[in-house]
Amino acid sequence: MTELQAIRERHSVRSYQKKPIEPQLAQALKERIDELNEKYDLHMQYIEPAGAVFSAFTNKFTGFGNVPAYIAMIGKREEGIEERCGFVGEQLVLYAQTLGLNTCWAGMFKRRQVTAEIGEGEKLVLVIAIGYGVTGGRPRRSKKIEDVTDVRELPDWFKNGIEAALLAPTAVNQQKFFFTLEGDIPSVKVSANGPFVKLDLGIVKYHFEVGSGRKVF
Ligand SMILES: Cc1cc2nc3c(=O)[nH]c(=O)nc-3n(C[C@H](O)[C@H](O)[C@H](O)COP(=O)(O)O)c2cc1C
Q1: What CATH homologous superfamily does 145-212 map to?
Q2: What is the pLDDT of residue 63?
């Protein structure tokens, strides 16, 4: 499965089968995490079992159930860390999808139950639940292309990028981003306030880059 296919097939999944992740898949994820930590100067960690991070209390509000594992998104407490976590974490989300696993970014979880190592000067930004979904999830409502750009004559690559961006997970499905094009240089900005909009922006940028084959600023 390519990353673009993973983008098309992925949906957030909150209910998981009660089974641990196969050791080869967990190993593959850990190796990818190591590579990406090195490349992007992050300290992401794969944690299994998830313990009480998705506790009964949290589950009642968010619908999480039987989460077997999670990825803790951790990095230096510095400017741009949220966006970087989004950009890199989404690479893991899509990779997990190609491995036949399901995921859900989670802003609501029991922070104090996270057993990952958080070094001095580092910050736990968010977690990503991961496991075998009871189902693969389902499509949700989405903004349209014309809601997220004022470009009216869209080159194919730009349209492909935006279509991939509209399939990106965003907190509470807010999709608060807006694309512009100057010459042939695409850029995207947060369009309104909301929870985790900076993190969303990183996720959306990654989807655009996969969809369009171009870098976005
Ligand atoms: C930064 C971020 C935080 C999120 N936090 C939660 C959460 O706490 N609980 C939850 O159930 N879903 C959470 N989600 C999942 C979104 O609700 C979901 O991505 C959105 O509704 C779009 O659906 P989709 O991922 O299936 O495309 C989060 C997503 C993102 C990107």
Answers
A1: putative nitroreductase (tm1586), domain 2 (3.40.109.30)
A2: 83
For 15-121, where are the E strands, in sequence order? 45-47, 69-76, 102-106
> What CATH class has 3-131?
alpha beta
Q: Average pLDDT in the 187-191 region?
A: 98
Q: Is 169 in the pocket of ligand 1 (CB under 6 A)?
A: yes
Residue 57: predicted pLDDT: 63
Burial of 172 (0-12, 13-18, 19+ CB in 10 A): exposed
Pocket test for ligand 1, best of 13, 14, 172 (most atoms within 8 A of CB): 172
What does the pLDDT read at residue 135?
97
pTM, whole model, 2 decimals? 0.98
